[in-house]
């Protein structure tokens, strides 16, 4: 059993597609082990995406992630990291396979509806960034 971190980004929260996205997880045997709606601060967004700080899109990414509330979740299930990535689809929704979350709900590579951890190691760090152990049930 693995755990992974998922973030429903400000575009999908503003578009009222939280429920439709969560339905994708639950109907694909990913259990919601923790969930909260939060407004990221600039510092939190910079820290969360620190791995991208040298990339040309970093400042825009941070501004986008603080443009409105997000929903952060811990998803749990067999092979959760990879299965969540499959459900999400490619980072750029124009390249995302039909039927994936990004193909169906994202608008652009920046406003791409959802974030998901890309490895088990990053999942552990990203989960710890947002949740205390006792908040994960
Ligand atoms: P995410 O999975 O949250 O991880 C980093 C984010 O940077 C990515 O999704 C995209 O939303 C965002 N981003 C913006 N521009 C680019 C780009 N040119 N290449 C990759 N990611 C980008």
From TrEMBL:
UniProt keyword annotation of ATP-binding present: yes
BP GO annotations: CTP biosynthetic process; GTP biosynthetic process; UTP biosynthetic process
Domain of life: Bacteria
Catalytic activity: a ribonucleoside 5'-diphosphate + ATP = a ribonucleoside 5'-triphosphate + ADP; a 2'-deoxyribonucleoside 5'-diphosphate + ATP = a 2'-deoxyribonucleoside 5'-triphosphate + ADP
First-listed, main subcellular location of the protein, grouped into a coarse class: cytoplasm
Ligand binding (ATP): 9, 57, 85, 91, 102, 112
Pfam families: NDK
Known function: Major role in the synthesis of nucleoside triphosphates other than ATP. The ATP gamma phosphate is transferred to the NDP beta phosphate via a ping-pong mechanism, using a phosphorylated active-site intermediate.
Family of the protein in this entry: Belongs to the NDK family.
Protein name (Swiss-Prot/TrEMBL): Nucleoside diphosphate kinase
Organism: Helicobacter enhydrae
């Amino acid at each position: 059993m693995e755990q992974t971190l998922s973030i429903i980004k400000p575009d999908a929260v503003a578009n009222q597609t939280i429920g439709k996205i969560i339905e994708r997880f639950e109907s694909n045997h990913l259990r919601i082990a923790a969930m909260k709606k939060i407004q990221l601060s600039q510092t939190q967004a910079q820290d969360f995406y620190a791995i991208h700080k040298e990339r040309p899109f970093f400042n825009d990414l941070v501004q986008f992630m603080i443009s409105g509330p997000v929903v952060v979740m811990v998803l749990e299930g067999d092979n959760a990291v990879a299965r969540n990535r499959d459900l999400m689809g490619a980072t750029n929704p124009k390249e995302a396979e039909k039927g994936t979350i990004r193909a169906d709900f994202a608008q652009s590579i920046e406003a791409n509806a959802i974030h998901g951890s890309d490895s088990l190691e990053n999942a552990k760090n990203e989960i710890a960034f947002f949740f205390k152990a006792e908040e994960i049930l």
